[in-house]
Specification:
Blueprint: E1 11-14, H1 20-32, E2 36-41, H2 44-54, E3 58-62, H3 68-82, E4 87-90, H4 103-131, E5 134-139, H5 152-171, E6 177-182, H6 210-223, E7 227-228, H7 233-243, H8 245-267
Parallel strand pairs: 1-2, 1-4, 2-3, 4-5, 5-6, 6-7
Length: about 270
């Protein structure tokens, strides 16, 4: 197991930090003693407001994580202006596409949920390797361990995020780079604000708050754990899925039938 990651005195970057889990992560890292946290988002106004609310050790930067040149430029600018990046929380996410979605949903989900992590690894890992240290946190989802029934683009690309995080954790450990993968179930954020009783995400039980997720991340960094599960029950779900895939699929089919029946009843 990799060594625990020590937060005090570090330079951290959190993408998708204008609200939700990203903002909570930035706030928690600052409370834990990070020297500075660069918070990023596509929306320049929102991220500037978030940084102002976080205080003088927070710095705003607007760029699109799905643009490889923008990511590479951001890494270079941050290291030039703020020093070596010790921790990158690759947290930006989208909820695109109901059901099978369309090609645009798949393209956006793939670029944000998978390629954004590839882009930062390409730009940042050589720098971390030369220093012999650094950590990447990939925000995936319990959907990447199980199945999110509402959206195929979301579920499939979150599986891709988990697989990529595992690959990076294996291939770069001998360079002193550690990787962890955050896989929450339902969290009360703007992305889930429209979830009603018919949302498949409700199958996982009660939603938690972004601050709870951030607390789980810090605890995992302290211990060096790869998989961060703010909902501990997700581990049991994953074990049952792996132990008997056919039984798991039968159970999920029954759950989906109940969701559809409930939606039909509300429509009536």
């Amino acid at each position: 197991m990799p060594e625990p990651f020590s937060i005090p005195g570090t330079t951290a970057v959190v993408t998708g930090a204008a609200g939700g889990i990203g903002l909570a992560l930035a706030r928690r890292l600052l409370r834990e003693g990070a020297a500075r946290v660069v918070v990023t988002d596509r929306d320049a106004d929102r991220i500037a407001a978030a940084a102002e609310a976080l205080g003088e050790r927070a710095h705003a930067m607007a760029f699109d994580v799905a643009d490889e040149n923008a990511v590479a430029d951001a890494v270079a600018r941050i290291e030039r202006d703020h020093g070596p990046i010790d921790l990158w929380c690759s947290n930006a996410g989208v909820a695109a596409g109901r059901g099978l979605g369309d090609d645009a949903d798949w393209d956006l989900s793939w670029r944000v949920h998978v390629m954004a992590h590839v882009y930062v690894a390409r730009a940042l890992f050589p720098r971390m390797a030369r220093r012999g240290s650094g950590h990447l946190l990939v925000t995936a989802s319990a959907a990447g361990l199980l199945t999110q029934l509402d959206s195929a683009p979301y579920s499939a690309t979150k599986h891709g995020a988990v697989a990529l995080a595992e690959w990076l954790a294996i291939r770069h450990a001998d360079e002193g780079i550690s990787v962890s993968c955050l896989c929450p179930q339902g969290v009360n954020t703007a992305m889930t604000a429209g979830d009603g009783g018919a949302s498949a995400t409700r199958l996982g039980g009660d939603y938690i708050e972004p601050d709870d997720v951030a607390e789980s991340v810090v605890a995992a960094l302290h211990t060096g754990r790869f998989l961060v599960l703010p909902h501990p029950e997700a581990a049991g779900f994953e074990q049952r899925r792996a132990a008997d895939r056919d039984r798991w699929l039968d159970g999920m089919r029954r759950a989906w039938a109940k969701i559809r029946a409930g939606a039909a009843g509300r429509a009536d």
